[in-house]
Queue: 2 jobs
Job 1
Amino acid sequence: MPEKSSYALDGIDRLIHEKARLSILSSLAAHPAGLVFTDLKDLCRLTDGNLSRHLTILQEARLISIHKSFQNNRPQTIARLSPLGQKRFTEYLTELEQIVSSALKSKRHPAPTPVRPKPA
Amino acid sequence: MPEKSSYALDGIDRLIHEKARLSILSSLAAHPAGLVFTDLKDLCRLTDGNLSRHLTILQEARLISIHKSFQNNRPQTIARLSPLGQKRFTEYLTELEQIVSSALKSKRHPAPTPVRPKPA
């Protein structure tokens, strides 16, 4: 093995990394008071079904909370990032930042080609 | 809709975003001369089957090239990032950089809660 691996991306949480969920979490992180379902759907450009499915996954992981209420007699669903969600999303962003910076760095200073030992 | 959406992450290419493939492409970007299958497997901490599967996907998308040769009478598979792969990976990193920087910025300066018009 050429060197100790930082390429395995162990810190990248698949739950957050999935594109639609990353989009939802980015939107919610920018709107700490929460977002109404239809606004979130527009922001993330997801279908009703897709948004619902990913909100359920995020809620089950306790990264977001879902509040149901009524406004002008219409049911309203509001999603908010939970404290755990904020923590995990920030950790994810930090990992992502490191991946980008080391990838850009290795573009400028490529690693040497690994030398494979000759079989005996 | 509260504001024009940058949350939909349109620039994020799912082909590259998938965690195992991101790991493979990061490894190859850091080793421009290419990597032998077993080294790549160790670096990315993937199983043989998983690595093969993702290499095929990346090769079909022309992001990498696969070279088969013999070393000491043993078959050797070497993967290399193609020029297209380099271009697309750099574009992906630029997108990722923007997501991280705007997410960290919006943590400091949250967007206002959208005001929904009352139904007539």
Job 2
Amino acid sequence: MIIVMKQSSTPQDVEEVVGILKSRGLGANLSTGSQATIIGVLGDKAKLGGFDFELLDSVEKCVPIMHSYKLASREMCPDGRLVQAGGEVVGGKKLLMIAGPCAVENEEQIMKAAVGVKEAGATFLRGGAYKPRTSPYSFQGMEEEGLRLMRRAADATGLKVVSEVVAHDLIETAAKYCDMFQIGARNMQNFRLLREVGRSGVPVLLKRGISSTIEEWLDAAEYIMSEGNYNVVLCERGIRTFETATRNTLDVSAVPVVKERSSLPVIVDPSHAAGKSRYVLPLSLAAVAAGADGLIVEVHPNPAEALSDAAQQLTPQAYAALFQKVGAVAAAVGRSME
Amino acid sequence: MIIVMKQSSTPQDVEEVVGILKSRGLGANLSTGSQATIIGVLGDKAKLGGFDFELLDSVEKCVPIMHSYKLASREMCPDGRLVQAGGEVVGGKKLLMIAGPCAVENEEQIMKAAVGVKEAGATFLRGGAYKPRTSPYSFQGMEEEGLRLMRRAADATGLKVVSEVVAHDLIETAAKYCDMFQIGARNMQNFRLLREVGRSGVPVLLKRGISSTIEEWLDAAEYIMSEGNYNVVLCERGIRTFETATRNTLDVSAVPVVKERSSLPVIVDPSHAAGKSRYVLPLSLAAVAAGADGLIVEVHPNPAEALSDAAQQLTPQAYAALFQKVGAVAAAVGRSME
Amino acid sequence: MIIVMKQSSTPQDVEEVVGILKSRGLGANLSTGSQATIIGVLGDKAKLGGFDFELLDSVEKCVPIMHSYKLASREMCPDGRLVQAGGEVVGGKKLLMIAGPCAVENEEQIMKAAVGVKEAGATFLRGGAYKPRTSPYSFQGMEEEGLRLMRRAADATGLKVVSEVVAHDLIETAAKYCDMFQIGARNMQNFRLLREVGRSGVPVLLKRGISSTIEEWLDAAEYIMSEGNYNVVLCERGIRTFETATRNTLDVSAVPVVKERSSLPVIVDPSHAAGKSRYVLPLSLAAVAAGADGLIVEVHPNPAEALSDAAQQLTPQAYAALFQKVGAVAAAVGRSME
Amino acid sequence: MIIVMKQSSTPQDVEEVVGILKSRGLGANLSTGSQATIIGVLGDKAKLGGFDFELLDSVEKCVPIMHSYKLASREMCPDGRLVQAGGEVVGGKKLLMIAGPCAVENEEQIMKAAVGVKEAGATFLRGGAYKPRTSPYSFQGMEEEGLRLMRRAADATGLKVVSEVVAHDLIETAAKYCDMFQIGARNMQNFRLLREVGRSGVPVLLKRGISSTIEEWLDAAEYIMSEGNYNVVLCERGIRTFETATRNTLDVSAVPVVKERSSLPVIVDPSHAAGKSRYVLPLSLAAVAAGADGLIVEVHPNPAEALSDAAQQLTPQAYAALFQKVGAVAAAVGRSME
């Protein structure tokens, strides 16, 4: 941490700050410039016990230097982590292709979706069984029955299952059906849930919160990893901005930023970012071109009749076409679909 | 709902839309202007079963007309709701004044805080026992012991207790100590938690999510109210914007907007909005001038040594001064402190 | 400036940075912590001639320490500047009350507006003669004839005139009619215009850009002041955020932040922030309670027939009522209306 | 336009609205649902003369239906416009590749840059001669001498010239040296400047404002086109959001959205979006994959010594490598570099 003194600060003010540091077993390194005195804090900041130097009138500001995450950082694993999920390796040359409906609605729907996405080339089936909905009066999901149907459809087609867990007491049940848990954007800072999926040992797909910074997102990954579960895949799904032409604004830059700061793989959800099915293809291509390790795309056998998020789901045919086009871009940037 | 057809749409396109509506038992009202045909949907939108007209190439856009919340709306209770919490009435002439530390740290600290805020004139003591922290390595709260200490301090000084619940399985324990539950900003869309605090019957202070729209916030209140618990107080605490001079941007306009759209009382948390104690007073005055029904302010007997959010907590002395100044503005806008 | 080295940096890397600094006549102060080496740069940063240390692989980040504005800073004038405009003093106890229509539309309209706002108690008449409109097909203003009518109405009623200049070649003409120039939000970074109004010597009301940080706003003020014109009044008018309930989000916190960082007075425009006339009163009260030095409010003799921004203009009667209520809050915070 | 009445509105309220419409020569189409009455306005909205129905207590809201831009719309030119600039065709299969330094600094620098970007394959040279800088104390550009040097370098290497005009009285001078004018993000709503570049007849590269919606951007294009100049190329360059990891957030979704709503070509500026040279490559690939018609990239012979924006400029070598990789992605999506 660096403490920047105000221009109007006196040598006594500087001494006071240094004294506080010393009384807590910390060192201080003074840098007296023409415009401001800067104090570098030497030692473990935790010794400060929460003391906030910005409370002193003589202090202009404190500047943190280090990330708060460690296990999720690039430094801890400079070559990048290869995450294992359902027998797939995520973060290598091959892209992780996940597809399926927003919500499991009935046996026929999920089976048709599974057949369609499998034929297109996907390896993971997605589908919501517990739906976090903005209004209490919207369809809330089929719950465990939905998970059961999804598992059956996946087994019948040779797919793996990823589904969202929305509360920690559902983890045990969900673990019976899922190869990977999804933590949704709204729960990215539900720290109790993060810890518990960490303890479960099940691989986790961690979506970025709609208005979370990349640093907060990596801190959330750290919660899971600090419980010993390193199989975490990050998922960028659009952030909230002033622009209303799309449901959210896909932060495609997050892909190279995450690659630089973290060792974890990062995939992209173009469906939630766009909110409109006609933008899903260009955003998918952009994501893979930018270096994403995979895509999670909403596919429904009959989007127009979907019970939720109808506007952003693709038909299996459209997904098959997308898969081909993504393959061409993937090849152009040195990645592969299989 | 209104469906706006594209300029390029044909009479056949319009017929298709009308046909879909009729097949689902809904009526259509056509308005053919010089530039676009507009179709007003007559009947209960739920009959559409999720069909999304924006998927049709001939449709420009769909415009929702109604709020999704009902119980929380102004229409349901035009004169405004008076919320009961710990024997206090919220939403009337008297302001709800809540104060206390960010987190309960030990017996002496919470007792000193309680004595200080009681002397200043507050009626509710706040204090976090379960702290949602961005990093897993930060202080996470004293948990039930913290609630116990806070209850004791409140009883000793004649205050009521409000504290945050961060998971639904903590509700039963927390209910033993709290007169009011707080739902924090990060949990505003933790729908399971919202339902469960709704079922608990305990009054709820519902903070606005850091990037939630006012409509989403009222939808969250609806979750609680739909379980039969109408004792909900809203709390504006700043939203995330591009400006970094303050921790968040206090959306003071949310106060009159909420008053217009909802019957629920709304208070303001200037401490989290500002993030710096020196801005807490002006924001408190602004909130009350704008019509807020109360304030929740962070007060710590020794802010510089606080274990969390040190920079934004006031001393009891500063809070007493704030209380007096808020009283003057309250009187100027027809409100009172007692 | 502070240079933070990466954890992986070597002593050679540090030497390289120090060498670059020395070769440009700058000093370096090293602070070697357990986690990172930090280099404080000693001397005038301008000597770096644009060299960017973040380009070096061994550098984590560079942290600027100083503001780029000087004349606008609080440090240069710790007691605050009293701005002179049209015989009024801005920044003292008395609030600057500006009111008038969005645009000058005709002689009768501006005269009625002037009479109304004068009777209510305002001292300055506002009105747009050159209107920056989003669409080229919207009403663009009466231009010089509008200024002439406004001047006449102001002289007849004993008011002063403030009006927007939108291009530097209009300054000479506008100076014939105006006591104060307004720089609109869209032109806050039209640096050519800022310099030229600086040279004109006419007092300036500088609106904050819709997505400008407070630092950028003060840098814009610096452009005007660097030409020798210190009569600058800042105006907060709402920023662009994700919330759509109001036209913009009034950043009421900007008032105390500006007061702390700058010596310039700051007023608030609740009309553009709210975008709806029914929110103008609560936002006006909030602004004055937060410490604003005045208000600029849109008032039209017949808002429903206004040629622009109809929804946010008050009637003269509503403004008179607002003026009284603002007076009560002003008194409560130690300010006055006259 | 659609007028939505409040649920509490009476038949008399509806009659009042209809009466106002009729008195202005407009028709009304009523749609009375179970929850709200909706009035479709028939005829040219301009006849309303600015009357705002939201001022009536009985009106819930007004919903605009049509864009305000016409010439820039897709409807006016469904196959897309091919823009002519400096002998190049923009908007066809071939990508427009623009590169060069942030600012022209001296003859050697711009000549080296020109040679480098030409060798890599670019067709247009960029370089700022008049720099809009946040602080008045930063380097402001070489002005006309900069344009002269850039023209000479372009002619010597067979490139075309694009450079920013920052004020309307510089257009005549700039037209002597430029094949295309750039309107910078800060001037996107400098309507006087937009009209004047429209009148100049010189092709225009119109950057999106840092916090402008896509609709406002297309309205800005309409200003230029409404003066008869249809050679407009749009340029997405990142928007301002809460995320600080990158200088701005590249809104890559804007590419397909613009393609759908407008007939104009759209290119991307990854340098300003990223703000860091190491993110320029992935963002370039993402932009082209999403369908952008070209790229404008900052290239400097010696980025570390650049007088402005040093951190985001590439070396000519890095640009040559980027050009090759962009070519591979371009081919994968059916575009070409020549």
